[in-house]
Specification:
This protein has 360 residues and is an alpha+beta fold. The protein contains twelve helices and eight strands. Helix 3 packs antiparallel against helix 4.
Length: 360
Amino acid sequence: MEILVRPVIVIGGAVLLTLAIGWATDRLLRKADERDHDSPLWELLRRGRIPYQLVLCAALLRGSYDQAKVLERHQVGIGRALTLVLIGSAAWLVIRIASAIVETTYSRYARAHRDPARVRRVRTQVELIMRVVSAIVIVVAIAAMLLTFPAMRAAGASLLASAGVLGIVAGVAAQSTLSNMFAGLQIAFGDMVRIGDTVVVDGEWGTVEEITLTFLTVRTWDERRITMPVSYFTSKPFENWSRGTPEMTGTVFWHLDHSAPIEAMRAKLRDILRESPAWDGRAYGLVMTDSTPNTVQVRALMTAKDADDIWTVRVTVREQMIAWLAAEHPYALPRVNTSEAVPRPAEPVNGRAPRPRSPG
């Protein structure tokens, strides 16, 4: 009877104690969340209850499994497996706790500061910091798991002896990866580009959607994703429309007939902008910027508070101005002249007026 009861008491007691402690901790976190609605810390910590219970259960079983007297021939292997589970779940729990703390700090900063550029910069730094912390924790956890095996401990001396050669080989092999990692840190703390910035890269206009230690993703206006190494942004020029203040100035060009009513177009531009909610009211203007033998080039200038609004203002002005010209001043639209050319007058001969040519 003792052979059956002892394992049930040891293993079942460890599982029941884990569930009880986990339930009590979850209740405490839930009550703390109800008292402090403004902080997301307690709700984020509740997401770590699974690794928390794994840590408790693995620790309890690792400490009391010897008393169960089950599979004693495999006791070493089972103990090592429980140790591996304990290390892995502990690393998982540390990442969840660090993520909760960092996310809570960022949310408080975002509520306290109204400048969207600074908030995006902090968001970029926070995400990259979390990736670095996660990578460090995972590497340490894997190293701790490997050190639980005696063979790995015995090979440690030879690994340290060849660390210099391995470091040189790894540095040469991973030169591109390391350069991207350092470029990612430079972007995060150098404030070159941030998540949410509007950029133009290789002629493509889009918004920065994700920044990692090695690559950056730009979401274009037509929902495509352009992925490129972060080293691109530290070695090549690019346009960042969100750098500094997000306010922007846009232009619209038309090619019209020489008889286009410029003054009437200025008045119409003013009326169009006043009816457009995307125009911020800072400035506008309309001038003739160029002329050709067949057309003139007219440029309209307008302002908006950000890149999205400047796009809306530009398309609105372009559409409504063309519609107004077609309805009210159709002669101003460009056309192809089909009339006969005016003949060149004849030059005088010996100071006498040229004799007019007969029609025949």
